[in-house]
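Before surveying the methods themselves, it helps to consider a single example record, giving the amino acid sequence and backbone structure tokens:
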Amino acid sequence: MPELPEVEALRWFLDEHLVGREIERVHPLAVSALKTYRPGVADLEGRTFDAVARYGKFLDLGAGDLHLVMHLARAGWVRWNDRMPEAPPRPGKSPLALRVRLADPAGVGFDVTEAGTQKRLAVYVVHDPAEVPGVARLGPDPLAPDFTPEVFSGLLAGERRQVKGMLRDQSVIAGIGNAYSDEILHAAKMSPYKLAAKLSGQEAALLYDMIGSTLRDAVERSRGLPLRDLKAEKKSGLRVHGRKGEPCPVCGDTIREVSFSDSALDYCPTCQTGGKPLADRRLSRLLK
């Protein structure tokens, strides 16, 4: 799933390649991805992209008083094309969900795709990004200048959930998903099951620092890469997430996994849980 660093890299790329270019045609291929119908995607045609912004994991492509807002969900992506086929795309079993063709130079544009059978990609055409429910609910951006230690402490106050769940909640902090929450907690040497409200002042300060440094490092690794390389860069840069059975790069212990119905978390017992394995939450609580 694209998270804040990958979406920020997409923003950089699209800002460089789209701003100032006129939209010739927009082809919607996956009706399930369209979450708004008035204005429609055809209303973008003839307009010029003038800004590209990011809100958490949402991409916002501005064109005058309209915004094409996208959430790539678990398996969505953006593919740039320097030469598109002349024939309009046809709906079918391909992963293509939306095609945007630019007027100049002819044939240049981008595709929005979604792999797999679970269709969660979301595309909106709105006058204001705040009209998108997911954008309106977002918490503060962890890379914004106003995301201070004091703001973070306020978010922790009274938070009764485990810290892993809190980090992934987009209404608390925008942009962190399953992968980077694992990476942040590993860097902070903190159990994902630890209750957020019970963090000491020192633990909260460390977690705050690791949120910033982990995300900024990932953003910098992605800067300037072609879109086709961003997914591979994310995977290669992860230290624990998706690395079940591999040695921890810090201590050498075996990275373990806890599976849930639709996701999994990865962690190092030595670095994060005092050497004790976490029990599968479907069966029992954290071993103490």
